[in-house]
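Inverse folding, one chain.
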């Protein structure tokens, strides 16, 4: 099964639609962090790489207040459709969406003032190539802002996958899951950006709120319905163990629940660099 097919799966698109309000709340602090780092000004041309269902491109387009132009690209046509619907619902006319592969950006040299990428670079088959493409399409003096996951050892993953690994004998993290955290070490993104031709490259770990506005059972349902990197882990839970493992997961998530929301935090690696 190809990566494109996985990210285009009906189940994932359905989950994105079903939980769109809650997931937007959960990711809002991370979106704010990358929008702030991007430092976008009126009239700028912005490319949002691996935009998924629209963020941070939609927030950037809103901040531009009708000026400039934002283009969101992704390999998932289903996610892009949701992004278009979200932008239209907000009455945004300065953002568009396009199906494209980050390894071969379909844009000319020096086309953009800013590039953003939130939680996308971990999944690129050839990240150095993507960084070179980003450098190519940025205008001189333009910049990138990138967010990747920090280490695996953080609440959202420890209370879900971590519990499964603990409770099911012989279970290990699949390569697709491990790759999510390959840029979790400070300097790992900055080094590759510098190699790709960028300067003033820096990255740093930040802790931001990662809050789910609902009960623990919703977090667990959302994770099961939306995860792709850990799908094989979920599928490998023996049928006769699923109820027990699910109860153990809910018990761990409940430790972060205050009666109204699940108060996770997310550790991210935030990188910036200039072309």
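Residues assigned per position:
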């Amino acid at each position: 099964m190809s990566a494109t097919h996985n990210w285009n799966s009906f189940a994932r698109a359905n989950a994105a639609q079903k939980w769109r309000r809650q997931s937007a709340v959960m990711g809002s602090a991370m979106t704010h962090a990358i929008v702030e780092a991007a430092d976008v000004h009126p009239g700028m041309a912005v490319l949002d790489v691996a935009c998924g269902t629209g963020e941070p491109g939609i927030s950037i387009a809103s901040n531009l207040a009708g000026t400039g132009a934002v283009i969101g690209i992704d390999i998932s046509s289903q996610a892009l459709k949701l992004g278009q619907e979200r932008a239209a619902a907000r009455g945004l006319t300065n953002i568009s969406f396009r199906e494209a592969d980050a390894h071969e950006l379909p844009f000319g040299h020096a086309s953009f003032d800013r590039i953003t990428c939130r939680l996308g670079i971990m999944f690129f088959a050839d990240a150095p190539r993507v960084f070179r493409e980003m450098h190519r399409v940025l205008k001189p003096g333009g910049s990138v802002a990138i967010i990747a996951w920090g280490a695996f050892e953080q609440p959202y993953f420890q209370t879900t996958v971590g519990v499964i690994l603990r409770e099911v004998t012989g279970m290990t993290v699949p390569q697709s899951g491990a790759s999510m955290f390959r840029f979790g070490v400070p300097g790992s993104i900055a080094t590759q950006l510098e190699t790709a031709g960028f300067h003033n490259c820096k990255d740093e770990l930040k802790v931001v709120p990662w809050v789910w506005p609902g009960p623990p059972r919703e977090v667990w349902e959302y994770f099961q319905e939306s995860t792709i990197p850990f799908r094989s882990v979920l599928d490998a839970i023996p049928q006769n163990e699923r109820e027990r493992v699910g109860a153990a997961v809910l018990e761990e998530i409940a430790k972060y629940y205050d009666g109204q929301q699940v108060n996770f935090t997310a550790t991210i690696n935030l990188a910036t660099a200039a072309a």
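Residues 1-5 have pLDDT under 50 and may be disordered. The radius of gyration is 19 Å.
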